[in-house]
Amino acid sequence: MSEQQDWREETREIIASLLEDGSNPDAEYSIEHHFSGQDFNRLEKAAVDCFKAGFEVTDAEELTLERGQVLLCFDAIKDGPLTEEAIMAQVAQLLPIAEKYGIDYDGWGTYFEE
User: Coiled-coil segments, which residues (predicted)?
Assistant: First the structure.
């Protein structure tokens, strides 16, 4: 299965879970795409590409893992509908950026909307 298909399956599950919990299907959602890596320069270049692609980008943060390894993380955020098509279009924009710079695309998330 391709990486895109994996994300499509996960996207369906996240959307279904939110809707089952009563989240508003017609609301505008802030979709936060998560990136991580160990090389600040690569992460910074990826963040610039995400910004150029029309995403709001958060500042990089340090995350210390259980074994003491330090990861750098940032989010690329874009508002849109909670639909598989809209979110997968964003994922399709972002996966090549992660690949280009050798960083990890760690999926996406959003918040419950009344």
Answer: none
pTM score, whole prediction:
0.91
Smallest CA-to-CA distance from 16 within 7, 26, 25 is with: 25
Q: How confident is the model at residue 109 (pLDDT cuts 50, 70, 90)?
A: very high
- Do 37 and 74 contact (CB within 8 A), yes or no? no
Return the sign of the alpha-carbon dihedral for residues 41, 46, 49, 54: negative
Main-chain dihedrals φ then ψ at residue 79, nearest 5 degrees: -85, 145
Cα–Cα dist 18/88, whole Å: 16
**Model pLDDT for residues 29-83, shown as the tens digit of each residue:** 999 999 999 999 999 999 999 999 999 999 999 988 888 888 999 999 999 999 9
Which one is the CATH code of 3-20+27-110: 2.130.10.10, 3.10.20.30, 3.30.70.970, 2.60.130.10?
Answer: 3.30.70.970
